[in-house]
Amino acid sequence: MHRSVPFALLVTVPFVLGGCDRVERAADVASGFVSHQLCSAAFVSGLEPEQYYREAIAPTLKPVGFLSNHAVDGQHHEVSASFAGIASARAFYRGTEGCLLETGDRPVPVVMPHVEPTPALLPAVAGPAIVEPTQPALRQALDKAFRENPEPPYRQTKAIVVVHDGHVIAERYAPGYGVDTPMLGWSMTKSVTNALLGVLVRQHKLDMNAPAPIAAWADAKDPRHAITPDNLLRMNSGLDIGQSMTASASTAFDPTAYMVFGGERDMAGFAERAPLKAAPGTWWNYTNGNTPLLSRMIRDNAGGTASGVLGFAHRELFDKLGMRHVTLEFDATGTPIGASHMFASARDWARFGLLYLNDGVAGGERILPEGWVDYSASQTPGSGFYGYGAGFWTNRGGGEGATYRIAHGMPADAFMARGSGGQYTIIVPSHRLVIVRLGPAFTPRDDMDVVAQLIADVIAALPKS
């Protein structure tokens, strides 16, 4: 999600909106959020769970955190959580598929056949050791970007990787993190969904501008029949399925929060039941409800199973880019949680960014269709205030969001994968740069001011040609 679910409002919302059922659903979201995120932090990322809880979860629960309880079972790789005595949840670790909330019978574990990774097409971006910047100006840029606020809200930068001309020229990690630590990208995962769709388009298995291949909308009389995959990717499908941009009393009970953390086994099935609020292409609304439908298209084209998706994603994307520390999480039907739940090391996120810096080509092989990168970075009509493309945020096209970012140091041609709480993979073609910033920031604008300044500082430190 771009914004975390505002559980702090759980105390006041019952009086504002009323309804015990709504309060119970919000409590389900709270317990599911804690159990799932702690499970992934402990068993996917290998982080100390209580520290992660304090840094990434507790600030989201304020001021009602005292109503939440959790327990981490390291022996069975499970995390249980409860909220206010009215909701409980359990998440369990499944290995290659990451963590899953337990909703009824557990799915059969996925057993991946042993397949040697596809040789990487991209050359190594760095050796095994952390790359210390050799220029004082780059060291100072990292110092500034890692500087913590003296009091809340904290910035909590955990990793920064700077890649110039295909090589890491500077990186830094917080204690407990390193070059191999998989870290949650939140909505940067949407940009990975973009890449997997691009592969299908290149293979002539998907038409982004045809009616979406969704059986429930197949009747031409259904107003949703006109929705295209492009509409879903650009967030202008017109579906009335909440919003994932801001935190307010209504989004405390956002349907997409319940979709991810409330116990829905089939997230795409949940999304396809949403009614239409506006004609496709006429209303821009950032919601996590669009992406599960795209994720299911990927699943169906990859054999209909989680193992098929993993095989496809590694064979066609991750392995070719040399991304070796990736975990993509799934719902109970084998559909990837393509809006929010991919983990990768900071260097792997940088390798992903290099694919888009190089126009969808890696090592001379075209991974994404010709023109796909420009398509991804082209601003969607109606999103000008924020500057959203097709699964990426973009400075191309004007609008308040782009103007703000440019004024704070981010070049006008830049575009980015962006996730809640300050997760960034920023591509700057004019300077041959990819910059990754990870860590649970709770500052205004997801730490955009500091990240934009980091980009400006790095550009200033580059040798002048």
Q: What's the arrangement of strands in the largest beta sheet?
A: 6-5-15-14-13-12
The secondary-structure class comes to alpha+beta
**H/E order of the elements?**
HHHEEEEHEEEHHHHHHEEHEEHEHEEEH
Average predicted local confidence, pLDDT = 92
Q: How would a textbook summarize the main sheet?
A: 6 strands, antiparallel
Report how far the terminal alpha carbons are from each other. Answer: 40 Å
Overall body shape: globular
Task: Compute the number of helices.
Answer: 14
Please provide the count of β strands.
15
Backbone CA Rg: 21 Å
Please state roughly what percent of the residues sit in beta strands, choosing from under 5%, 5-15%, 15-25%, 25-35%, 35-45% or over 45%: 5-15%
Helix content: 25-40%
The residue ranges in which pLDDT falls below 50 over 5 or more consecutive positions are 1-18, 247-251
Q: Which features does this protein show?
A:
six-stranded antiparallel beta sheet; 14 helices; disordered N terminus; four-stranded antiparallel beta sheet; alpha+beta; 465 residues
Protein architecture, described:
- The chain is α+β, with helices and mostly antiparallel strands and 465 residues long.
- 33% of the residues lie in helices and 14% in strands.
- The protein has 14 helices and 15 strands.
- It has helices at residues 13-17, 20-43, 49-61, 136-146, 188-202, 229-234, 255-261, 267-272, 291-301, 306-321, 346-357, 372-377, 400-407, 448-461; strands spanning 68-73, 78-83, 87-93, 99-101, 159-164, 167-173, 183-184, 326-328, 342-344, 361-362, 365-366, 393-394, 415-419, 423-428, 433-438.
- A 6-stranded antiparallel β-sheet has the order 6-5-15-14-13-12, with helices on both faces.
- β2 (78-83) and β3 form a beta hairpin.
- α2 runs antiparallel to α3.
